[in-house]
Structures are given as structure tokens and as C-alpha cells.
Amino acid sequence: MIVVLQLMTQEVLFEDLGQMPYQQAWDYQESLLQQNLEIKRKLRVLADSREPIVDSSVQVDHHFPQTTHHLLLVEHPPVYTLGKSGDVKNILISEEERNAKGIEYFATNRGGDITFHGPQQIVGYPILDLEKFETDIGRYLRKLEEVIILTMAMYGLKGERSKGETGVWLDPDIKGKERKICALGVRCSRWITMHGFAFNVNTDLNYFNYIIPCGIENKQVTSLQKELGHALNFEEVKENVKKNFEIVFDVQLT
What we know:
- The chain is of the alpha/beta class.
- The protein has helices spanning 22-48, 95-100, 137-153, 224-228, 234-249, and strands spanning 10-19, 69-75, 79-82, 104-107, 114-117, 121-127, 160-162, 165-170, 179-189, 192-200, 220-221, 251-253.
- It has a single domain (10-35, 67-253), classed as BirA Bifunctional Protein, domain 2, CATH 3.30.930.10.
- The chain is built from five helices and twelve strands.
- The chain is globular.
């Protein structure tokens, strides 16, 4: 007799945070990451212990605590964020000028360099336990890019990868025409992820004039609106990102 085992689709808890200040969203991500890290710590203790653990927060009777996947989508008020390996010199305006324009600034613990977040940009923060997927950060980044590439294809645009650079581009191999539409920067602790992607939909691209985006000189930044010549339904694009996230990661958003 042949027994076929069908693996259950993993669930990812989805939250649309609407418009939220950067620090508030960062703190929320950090709290979800720390919850998962604490669960992993308890699992390690359980695995290493020879004696039952008396801890009301740990159910050891076949109900071990499990890490939880999350996907947060959010819009931020205008803000520049710098990755831990970035160079603050890639901000081209002074602090006084930045404050006058109402743009916040944060040095973060994600990878990457300087980028901009603002209204009508879909910012995605997946908090995933990669030990339940693949323990490969490169593969994880490629999957995030694929989510955006599939979404762009729904609007007749060919999103591509640029060799040696993260994110999603148009015409990355045509010198002088390279333009980035989605930036990526992540952090991973014990295979729990945070931070993520920033996808320009109807984003005001003028904010990028005051930085060297991602520390990459002489390359443009673009948006769906600029490429298509008209504003898009932001909520519709967001729904398409969610659908493609489910497809690429083979998960169900709940």
C-alpha cells in the first residue's frame, strides 16, 4: 500500500497597519521577533532538559510552543532609513533641510544602505521563521523579489533582478536606463526575519532626489505610476502583492 503524505500549507498572520510612523512599526516588528525568539529559547531548553520543566508558560504535554509567521503591510510618513552597513553621506541634504521638509531619519539594524519610505509606497515586513522554509537568506531575498516581479507582470511590466544588487529593477542591463522600483533590506536573528521590502506604487519620487538610493550612484528610481503614466488603485496593488506572497512562499494569509 502506498501512503501519500500531504503537507499542510503554512499560515501567515496578516496585518494591514495602514499609515503608521516608522518607529512604531519597527517596535512592533521587534516585539514579534522577540516573541518568536523566546519560543525558540524555550524549545531549546525543553530539548536539552532531562527533567520536566515547571513553567506555566510552557505546555509540555504534546503542545509545544510554536513560532508564528507574520506579514505586515504599512505606509510610512516620509522617512529615510539607513542600513547597518550604509553610509550617512548618501543623504545629500542637511538635518535642518530634512526637518524643514518633514522627513524623519532612522539608522536601523537591517541590511542595505539608505532608502526612502513614504505615502503610496507598499512597505512589507515579513516576520518568518525560515527554519520552517529554507535556511538560506539569499533564497529568501530572491523570493521577496519574485513577489514584486509577479505583481508587476499583472500590470504589463517586466520586473528584473540586477546582478550583484538586491531589489527589483526595470531594464537593469541597459546602461542609463536602469531604474529601481522596489528596495529590499532585512534582518535575520536565529532564522527569524524582520524588515523587508518597499515597493513604489504612486510614491512621490522627488524624495529620492535628496539621497543616493541604496548607495548606488547614477541609477534611477521609479514607480508603477511613473511607468504606466497614471495613478493606480493602491488597495488593489496591495491585494495583488498579498496574493503573490501566498503563491511564492506557498502559504495562506489569515
